[in-house]
Amino acid sequence: MASSPSQITSPVWLLTRVLILVSAFFAGIDGRKTKLSDEGFTYFQPRCRTHVASLTDFGGVGDGVTSNTNAFQAAVSHLSQFASDGGALLYVPPGKWLTGCFNITSFFTLYLNKDAVILASQDMNEWPIIPPLPSYGVGRDTPGPRYSSLISGFNLTDVVITGDNGTIDGQGQMWWQKFRQGALKHTRGYLIEILFSDQVIISSLTLINSPSWNVHPVYSSNVIVKGITISAPVTSPNTDGINPDSCTHVRIEDCNIVSGDDCIAIKSGWDEYGIAFGMPSQHIIIRRLFCVSPFSAVIALGSEMSGGIQDVRAQDIQAVNSEAAVRIKTSPGRGGFVKDIYVKGMNLENMKWVFTMTGSYGSHPDNKWDPNAFPVVSGINYRDVISENVTIAGKLEGIPKAPFGDICISNVTIGMSPKSKKKKLPWNCTYVSGTSSGVTPTPCSLLPESGYGDCPFPTDRDPIDDVEFQACSSASYRHSHTHPLIY
Ligand SMILES: *[C@@H]1O[C@H](CO)[C@@H](O)[C@H](O)[C@H]1NC(C)=O
Ligand SMILES: *[C@@H]1O[C@H](CO)[C@@H](O)[C@H](O)[C@H]1NC(C)=O
Ligand SMILES: *[C@@H]1O[C@H](CO)[C@@H](O)[C@H](O)[C@H]1NC(C)=O
Ligand SMILES: *[C@@H]1O[C@H](CO)[C@@H](O)[C@H](O)[C@H]1NC(C)=O
Ligand SMILES: *[C@@H]1O[C@H](CO)[C@@H](O)[C@H](O)[C@H]1NC(C)=O
Ligand SMILES: *[C@@H]1O[C@H](CO)[C@@H](O)[C@H](O)[C@H]1NC(C)=O
């Protein structure tokens, strides 16, 4: 992951590097720590698992060439029997584990060693076709069905995908190329997609080169995405980072994302299909995010938002070289709502826009959308933002028949790029209303200075705030070698 120039020169950055080197040195001279895979390992989640097995117990071969699809499926199927007996963990050892799509199960942890790489197969026959999402009606790339995601979970309870910063490599180049050539019959799969599930944790992993979106929790609740590094070329198509979609109680924290589309995009279904499905994304916490997204947004709301988006709380956001910091995208036909959005504390550098709202995004699933289904956008609160080198401070474009209301922007200092300073048009607002306070440069006249001070940010805790991780030890893991499969 590329560090920003200011990071590289900052004392904190240097100190961090020194500490990493020092701790690596001590880990190296402590023999027990260097052989974690033999001696057991520590994983972090709310409840520890009772049973542990290794992918090699199911015939897995980590040579980067042999397909492990059957090994993963056999492992998951075997370990699913422990759902009501304390749950199970599947250990992926060091190695390169090529695989096609596989499903995971409930009360289950997939744990990657730090030197484990799950490599997505480039054989398209290893990517089964499944129906489109009910709230989208059609695939996003093409009408009709779609490819499965590499790792999927349907209708699960208590599922964890984690590792000591092990890697899942989507090998997406083939998919990006076919997509650009219009050579795909179906919508691309994602790296991780968890559907209709409760208690989902995705943590401590590096995700690279996804064919399309990286992490897609959909129709799920109590979702935590923590300590994830995501990287893909900034020119790769639709490689969004984390996209909570019709999800409730979501906590995304300590993530580092450099990719070809939005770092985080909150969604809830598409036009008439999303309206009919009617499942909002709500109670979403985002904090301590670092993002580079030169052609998209740090945090996007929409454009698919037809089930509604409500109560999003984003805090401590850092971004460089990105197109927009927060972007609300919608259109007539979407219906739904985007309301009670709170952002506090953003530090931004080299941005095209800081704030953008687009009411004419278009992009419809088919021609059956209702032109009178207007979205409601209201209660949008942004505060405590510093941004350097910005082309346009705010482009806020509401819908004439459904203006965006109750916008509040406070304590924001935006340094315009030298070129933009000459143009003297830092804000462009149409069909929006609200107030501002302590914002530089002076906002458009539709957001007059209120004199009220800070915009609100909720102080109550969300239940997902209170989910704690404990250190779980798999010290006796090695016994599974002497007692094959399971202990
Ligand atoms: C995963 O489960 C879904 C739902 O049961 C099924 O449609 C799909 O074929 C399964 N995928 C794989 C790779 O087994
Ligand atoms: C998952 O649950 C949803 C909603 O209850 C249901 O429509 C769907 O058929 C279930 N899918 C599977 C694979 O069990
Ligand atoms: C995980 O690995 C990535 C890629 O090597 C690295 O950039 C990131 O800093 C690592 N994260 C942690 C928490 O060690
Ligand atoms: C300002 O941002 C633009 C891109 O928006 C970039 O090309 C330029 O190098 C940046 N300038 C500085 C001084 O960082
Ligand atoms: C204004 O925002 C800055 C960060 O951008 C923050 O440090 C400061 O405390 C804020 N001021 C108030 C009064 O909240
Ligand atoms: C302001 O935005 C409106 C609506 O998007 C656009 O039509 C207009 O050209 C913009 N004005 C300027 C000066 O950029």
From TrEMBL:
Entry keywords, A to Z: Glycosidase, Hydrolase, Signal
N-terminal signal peptide: 1-31
Gene Ontology biological process terms in this record: carbohydrate metabolic process
Coiled coil, from the record: none
Record InterPro entries: GH28_Enzymes, Glyco_hydro_28, PbH1, Pectin_lyas_fold, Pectin_lyase_fold/virulence, RHGA/B-epi-like_pectate_lyase
GO MF terms, alphabetically ordered: polygalacturonase activity
SUPFAM superfamilies, per the entry: Pectin lyase-like
Residue ranges constituting the Rhamnogalacturonase A/B/Epimerase-like pectate lyase domain according to the UniProt record: 54-98
Family: Belongs to the glycosyl hydrolase 28 family.
Protein name (database record): Rhamnogalacturonase A/B/Epimerase-like pectate lyase domain-containing protein
Protein source organism: Amborella trichopoda
